[in-house]
Amino acid sequence: TTSSPSAPTVGIGGALAENATKSGFQAVSMAFEGVPLAEGPVTQARFEEQLSEVFGIAAPDARAIFGFLDVEKEGILEMDDLLDVLTVIQGSYLPYAAPKQPQQQQQQ
């Protein structure tokens, strides 16, 4: 059986999504805003560097994440693939927050 990025898993990815939520981000995507990530395809080595520099993730964990995301075993992927998977994990496994209503609607 081959994993696919659309099939969420718990473990490292789930821990990343949960950690982003605990850090005060209501959506995992907020942890990526304003972060200088590589654009376009990256190698495993560059992916590991990015996760270490930006998110403080150890190389062995970054390798495991890369292996999960690189389902075609091409040895390259885009950093956006990580965001996509974390968003799916958050939506599947973590409790969601109800959208905040504008003040006017709350008073009615």
Description:
It is a single chain. With 108 residues, the chain is mainly α. Helix content is 50%, strand content 6%. The chain has 5 helices and 2 strands; from the N terminus they run αβααβαα. The chain has helices at 12-22, 44-55, 59-69, 79-93, 103-107, and strands spanning 41-43, 76-78. Helix 2 packs across helix 3 (59-69). The longest helix is centred in the C-terminal third of the chain and has 15 residues, at 79-93. The model is unreliable at 1-11 (pLDDT under 50).
Descriptive keywords:
108 residues; 5 helices; disordered N terminus; 50% helix; single chain; mainly alpha
Give, in spatial order, the strands making up the sheet with the most strands: 1-2
Which consecutive residue ranges, at least 5 long each, have pLDDT under 50?
1-11
CA radius of gyration is 16 Å
Distinct helical segment count: 5
Question: Helix-strand pattern, N to C?
Answer: HEHHEHH
Class based on secondary structure composition and strand pairing: mainly alpha
Envelope shape:
globular
What oligomeric state best describes the polypeptide chains here? single chain
Return the average pLDDT rounded to an integer: 74
Percent of sequence in beta strands:
5-15%
In whole angstroms, how far apart are the ends?
Answer: 52 Å
The count of β-strands is: 2
What level of helicity do the residues show? 40-55%
Sheet with the most strands? 2 strands, antiparallel
